[in-house]
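Usage example:
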Amino acid sequence: REKLKTGQIPVTPPPTSPALQHRLWPDIDRLVKQQVAMSRMGIGDCGTGWQLFAEDGEMKMYRREEEIDGMVVDPLKAVHIVKGITGHEVCHYFFNPKYRYDWETTLEHMTVLENISDDTLVFLQTHKRIWPASQRDVVFWSHIRKLPNDQDRDGPDIWTVVNNSTESPEHPANVGKCVRIYLTVCLLCQTRVHPPKDGAPITRDDVSCKITYCSVVNPGGWAPASVLRAVYKREYPKFLKRFTAYVINQTKNKPLMF
Ligand code: 16C
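Running the assembly step on the lines above writes:
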């Protein structure tokens, strides 16, 4: 078992997961631990440079302006609190490929290249073209994980999905019409329960979910900085609002899934 320091959260899944035997596993496990730790940091803990660029009710989106070789790679950090849904539900609908076309509006095509285990998949996606740049595609592994709640041991588990670019020998980068983008995305979800005072069973009215979404996308090749920043300023808020509304709608008549 993993050795833990005081206050550290255990993030290693049970040693039975088939993903443990996979060639990508050391990378996946390292990245998940790193991304969860970074996502848990508040805006103030990450040093200066975070700028608020979008706000709508409880949703706040921050970015840091960064460029590599003249390409915009601005990191994004969004926080949101959504009533009536749990962290497990949010991560379930984000991870599971059968729902992706329902909520992912920039998507043109999605294929599951490899089903490593129930909690780990490799995707190939093509996205809509942004004029005047070339169309983009991306190959990434996606891993869903339950994390014990270290702050409230009796409280619901914390859930996360981490997506990170990887290579596929069968789908090499930049050979067709698409330019390959590179991404690291972490969705971290914490359920809050406000138990009814009269001891009645917990309903959807008694739960809310704190969502943290962090992303870094490298466009992989030329794209005008002004267009790219204008696109993500519009698309990230659209994504988080549409996706959370989708989860609310999907779950409203279903039992709570903690
Ligand atoms: O995390 C999200 N989705 C996951 C499941 O699909 C996964 C995939 C992320 C792909 C994000 C990059 C897609 C950019 C493609 C180009 C955008 C087309 C816009 C078309 C407008 C008509 O992790 C949710 C992702 C939410 C995406 C918001 C858009 C971010 C744009 C970032 C700039 C990309 C550089 C493109 C260079 C031309």
